[in-house]
Amino acid sequence: MARKVVLRxxxxxxxxxxxxxxxxxxxxxxxxxxxxxxxxLWREAQVAAARIQxxxxxxxxxxxxxxxxxGCYPLIYFVARKLKPGVAVETGVxxxxxxxxTLLGLEENGSGVLFSSDLPYFRIxxxxxxxxxxxxxxxxxxxRLSIDGDRRNIPKILEQVSCIDFIHYDSDKSYxxxxxxxxxxxxxxxEGCVVIMDDIQDDSYFSELVSGMSDWHxxxxxxxxxxxxxxxxxxxxLDHTEGAERCPPxxx
Length: 252
Prior knowledge:
By secondary structure, the protein is α/β, with parallel strands linked by helices. Helices cover 42% and strands 16% of the residues. It is built from nine helices and seven strands; from the N terminus they run ααααβαββαβαβαββα. Strands 3-2-1-4-5-7-6 form a seven-stranded mixed sheet, with helices on both faces. The longest helix is centred in the N-terminal third of the chain and has 31 residues, at 30-60.
């Protein structure tokens, strides 16, 4: 616990305030960027996000505990729809805002499988019952959920896939755990893979990861910053998405 408190203050490498300033200086307007990639699809993503918000508010009101918010689910839905991943990997499920968005996108596509890694809250009784509570039953056929923590879950996931099209990292925000997870996931990424990482203002990992890269963005969503790698690949494939080669999903 003490280590987590320290990491929230200093951010792993350097002071957190430095990382916040870096993210602020690099952030661009998400609406503008996504409209440039595919304006009609971005409107569809916003409609999907509004649906998720309404359903989440209703469902979460039934629980006596706070299960936290989600990642940037409009963007996540957009990427899932536009990229049409055969294999998506996401970490940090909680109530399941982001995972609902991904699975909804995959269902609209009619293809793809989502592998999720989570470690349920340990301060509440039977925490596993709350993991992904927002995800409707009719979308769960494309979902493979593991709840033993990233260090156990990710190796299991990698045994089941040959490559990865889409990564969304939203689990342990420490520098060390980001680095460990990405060093295991990145070698299996497809050439057109898109990566989304949440809360990049907490440490220097994302800024170091994209150093020397050209195709990356920083966006602000609900008061926090996320980093995205590979959006340019979506723009480049605007007229070729249907024929783009994706990872073969495992059998449902």
